[in-house]
């Protein structure tokens, strides 16, 4: 067992939290908000029909867009209520409930590695802090050779960008590109958001 994610600690303290989150995104979709910015970047990086893992997929907006674009998508999230909403609102990907710190998709019948892993919406700041490096290692273990992970989260969420990049390196990722937004604005020392494009490297190379 790993330490419970901060997200599920929030849900335990407020059982309405997941429902609130689901409805918030449903309302944004209804009122015409653009909910696919992150997914468009991932789609631009992917060859057609790529294998893509949405790590911490929540109610499915990113995974759903990518499946509609023709990719082979798996979405994993620790919150069963969000996975239920993803299945209802964005069918197409294969959705699984699970903690990223314990991610073992071959044990669940999904053995091929992923060309791309996306983790949008501050997921890395919601995993239990004691599991951050383990989560990054589990993501790295599910990447194809030369596969990439794109991970985005905001500043002032108790996970310093420098610490994250050091954790990613120790998990076997090299930095390809650092951005400040999902629409490709460059990362600077003043950026309050990080979108890290990481490449899976072979240990020992
Ligand atoms: C703010 S939501 C973002 C959801 C989705 N990525 C999006 O952008 O719409 C954060 C998500 O991280 C998930 N999460 C947090 N810790 C997790 C963990 N250890 N394993 C899997 N999912 C986790 C939560 O359940 C929640 O869906």
From TrEMBL:
The keyword Protein biosynthesis does not apply. CDD domains: AdoMet_MTases (cd02440). Residues 52-147 form the Methyltransferase domain. It comes from the Bacteria. Keywords: Methyltransferase, S-adenosyl-L-methionine, Transferase. Gene3D superfamilies: Vaccinia Virus protein VP39 (3.40.50.150). One of its GO terms (biological process) is methylation. Transmembrane segments: none annotated. Pfam families: Methyltransf_25 (PF13649). One of its GO terms (molecular function) is methyltransferase activity. The keyword S-adenosyl-L-methionine applies. This is SAM-dependent methyltransferase.
């Amino acid at each position: 067992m790993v330490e419970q994610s901060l997200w599920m600690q929030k849900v335990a303290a407020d059982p309405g939290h997941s429902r609130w989150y689901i409805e918030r995104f449903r309302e944004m979709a209804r009122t015409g908000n653009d909910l696919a910015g992150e997914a468009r970047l991932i789609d631009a990086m992917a060859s057609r029909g790529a294998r893509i893992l949405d790590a911490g997929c929540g109610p499915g907006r990113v995974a759903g867009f990518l499946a509609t674009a023709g990719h082979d998508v798996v979405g994993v999230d620790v919150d069963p209520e969000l996975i239920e909403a993803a299945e209802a609102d964005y069918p197409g990907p294969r959705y699984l409930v699970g903690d990223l710190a314990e991610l073992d998709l071959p044990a669940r019948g999904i053995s091929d590695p992923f060309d791309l892993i996306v983790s949008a919406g501050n997921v890395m700041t919601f995993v239990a802090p004691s599991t951050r490096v383990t989560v990054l290692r589990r993501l790295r273990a599910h990447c194809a050779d030369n596969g990439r992970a794109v991970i985005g989260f905001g500043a002032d969420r108790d996970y310093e960008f420098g610490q994250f990049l050091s954790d990613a390196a120790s998990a076997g990722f090299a930095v390809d590109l650092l951005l400040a937004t999902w629409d490709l604005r460059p990362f600077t020392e003043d950026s309050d958001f990080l979108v890290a494009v990481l490449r899976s490297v072979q240990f020992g190379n």
